[in-house]
Each structure stands twice: as C-alpha cells, then as structure tokens.
Design a protein that fits this description.
2 copies of one chain form a homodimer. Chain A is mostly helical and about 210 residues long. In chain A, helix 4 runs antiparallel to helix 5 and helix 8 crosses helix 9. The radius of gyration of chain A is 19 Å and the shape is globular. The two termini of chain A are about 35 Å apart. Chains A and B meet through helix 9 and helix 10 of A and helix 9 and helix 10 of B. Chain A binds a DNA duplex (30 and 30 nucleotides) through helix 1, helix 2 and helix 3.
Chain lengths: ~210, ~210
DNA sequence: AGTTGAACGGGACTATAGTCCGCTTGTTCC
DNA sequence: GGAACAAGCGGACTATAGTCCCGTTCAACT
C-alpha cells in the first residue's frame, strides 16, 4: 500500500491525524511516473493483461520500487481509484443529503440514505469495474482487508441500526448487503441480466433489508 | 475439469444423457491416486499451502497429467467436493421436503424450501470452507463459470418465481441471494460476527427477498 | 493376436507475482 | 558545504500456476 502524505488511503478519520512523514522528492517523482504509466497501460490493454513487469518498465523504475510502494497489484489498482473513492467517502461524510448527512437541521430517513448509497456505490463500481475488481480479487480476501471495506460497512451498519428496530443485527446485515455490491458478483450479475435489472435487484434487497 | 464417466459435474440433467466415453484404465488409476494424495495433503497442510507440484509429486504423476485432468487448482478442489455437491443436488431434486420436492401430492410453500436450501447450503459450505473457497476463487470469475452455480441459481429462481408475484425479477434476485452465500463473503462474515449471526443474517435476507 | 489411431503421461518450459539485499540518493544537522 | 544516516532504489532471485509436445500405452476393430 502507499505511504507518505499524499497517498494515505482514507480509512479512519482518527488515523489521518498521524503527522505526515514527508515523502522524499525522488519517491514522489517515481510514484507519479508509476501511476501515469499504469493508467496508460491499463487503459490501452486492460487491467488483466498488463503485468507488473510491464508497468515497472514503462514507468522506468525497478520492480522492487513498484512493489514496495504499492504492495501488490491490488494496491496499485486501489491507488488509481483513490481519488474517486475519497470523493465518494467525502460525499457520504459531509455532502448534501440524501447521500450525505446534509445540513445539521434537516432530517432524512435512513432508508433514503441507504438507497442513495446503493446508487452512488453502483455508479462508482460500474464506472471502474476492472480496477475495482482487481483491487478486490487480486489476492484472496483482499476486499475485506482494505480500509475502504470498513468504511462502507460502518456507514451501512449505522444506517441500518437507525431504522428503528426493523433490522435485528445491523452489523451482519451490512456485510450481507456489501456482498451483493462486490465487483466479482456485480460483473456476473450484469452479464446475466444487464445493468438496469441488476440495479433494481440491489435496490429491492436494500428495501427489504432496511426500509 | 474432469472427463470420463465417473467425473462428470452435475450440470443439467439433459447433458447427463451423453454416452459415457469410457475412461481408460490407467487414467482411472491416476485419477484415484491424485485425489487420494490431494485429500491427504490438503488435510495436513491446508489447501492454500499445497502447491500443484506437491500434489503431482505425492501422487507419483507428472504435472501435465494433473492439469490435463483437472484443469487448474479450482478444478481439483471441485473434484474433491464432487460427491458432497451431488448429494446436495440430489436432495434438492428428489429428496424429501422441505429441501426437496417431496412426494408428489404434498405441497410445501416456496418460502420453506428457500430457507431449507439456505440451511443446507450453509452447512455444505461451512463444512468445507477452504475447498469451496479454492474452487470459487482460484481464478477470477471461476465461481460463475462452473456448472454448479447454474444449478443453485436455477433452483432459487424457480422458487422465487413461485412466491406469487412477491418477487418481480426472480432471475436477478437469485443472483443476489447467491452473492451472500459466496465462500469469500461467508468467510469474512463468519470471522466478523460468528456462525450463528451470519446464518441468521442469511435467513433474514431470504425472508425478505422471498417469503 | 496384430494393427492402428487416439488418448494419456510426464517433465522441461514459460510467464508472472512477489522477495531480498547491496548500492545510491536525499535530507538533515552541524 | 560536508558528513552521517535513513530512506529509497532496482534488478537478480524464488516460487508457483499453467502450457506444450513427443514418446508411450491402451482399447477397438479386423
């Protein structure tokens, strides 16, 4: 995974307070070179068909550099998604309702926020399917280890617990809902029934699970 | 994947009618040797830590033999699960209700059969977690390519469509329910909330989705 | 039983992810 | 500006999945 001030994955707001260890100039340069090269290669040939060797060569850095900085191919994909992911998380934390909490005095029912999340998250995943898929499935269990999963899970859990006793176990239900939003599963579902019906099915499940 | 009479995966009853191509005697011998060796190694060291080289060596066959017969590591895992999977499929197709259809004149509501399926499938996966996980995640999308997925999907879809219009799109809903039963997701969920709460969450979703 | 063609066997070979460690380069502090 | 030390660099190295191809073995047919 990334290090340094500019690359921290948004995991927990508390953790963001650790002082920026300051990234060395050459490291920053190489990080940019790698991300540019990876973006270009992935766009041209598809994420699956690009080897880490190829990325390193195109970026003009050694393999060691690539892996030390990004950990593995999933980490590289995650770094490329970083900005979009942050945008979505920011919108959830502090944006307008129904996706975000809105201004202090307006109240939106949790069910509206659940559906808004489903829509926004589906947009995010469907727009970057191959990168998200790589970041989730490059190694077994990768999806559940990265910090972002914890963020989505906590958000859903809080909303489900607010539905007024309708959901007996928000923590478990949040996992179940996220299973349906997994890139691997969405890929298969979209291939089978198309985007519209897949989206509708997700909403139907969010409906029954939490309002 | 396997070939020959003894190894056909249960996919579609129609396809079972293709004449048995007859497995050669030496092939059958080697198949048994490989399955025995793999079962022993997997049990002793865990599925993840056993390489295909090790299986080939322990079975006393070459790598080529191993891969031609089983395709990949997922195929080997699937072959080891074959009997249990067939048992479950048989119980669903022709066993007693509520899991199976029961004798001709008794009628069981689809919702009972849905919950019976959830329970039986959870038992199956939880009892063989690492093998199922290997068979589903060894290569990206593996789960959705193997025939068994189609079987579970069709079963759920038929039941959902019988719930009397409660489910507008049984085909899509069946995919969503199966997402929650994926080995990868169940592993994470059980680790997070334990078996009991995970099972309850699955039932809650089956409840709301189909009765 | 002999012939023959196809299926099988097996190990060398390739491709790729990921590791390791001695060398180089920045940064910091005097 | 220079020394010292940490951080970063990079390519050789390992491990493993999966491929290929040719010699061997089986089984059907005469």
């Amino acid at each position: 995974m990334e290090r340094g001030a500019a690359g921290g994955r948004r995991v927990d707001l508390e953790l963001m307070r650790t002082p920026p260890p300051k990234e060395r100039a050459d490291a920053a340069r190489n990080r940019a070179k790698v991300l540019d090269a990876a973006a270009a290669l992935f766009a041209r040939h598809g994420v699956e068909s690009v080897s880490m060797d190829a990325v390193a060569a195109a970026a003009g850095v050694g393999k060691g550099t690539l892996f030390r900085r990004f950990g593995d191919k999933a980490g590289l994909a995650a770094a490329l998604l970083n900005q979009r992911e942050r945008d979505l998380q920011d919108a959830i934390l502090s944006g307008p309702s129904p996706l975000g909490p809105g201004k202090g005095d307006e109240t939106v029912p949790p069910s509206d926020r659940l559906h808004a999340f489903a829509d926004a998250y589906l947009d995010y995943v469907l727009d970057h399917m191959s990168l998200v898929r790589m970041s989730e499935t490059a190694s077994p269990g990768a999806r559940y280890r990265i910090g972002a999963y914890g963020f989505w899970h906590r958000h859903l859990m809080i909303l489900l617990d607010r539905t007024g006793g309708a959901v007996p176990d928000g923590e478990a239900a949040a996992h179940a809902l996220l299973a349906v939003l997994g890139a691997e599963h969405l890929t298969a579902m979209v291939e089978s029934v198309g985007r519209e019906r897949a989206r509708a099915a997700v909403h139907a499940l969010f409906d029954t699970a939490g309002g």
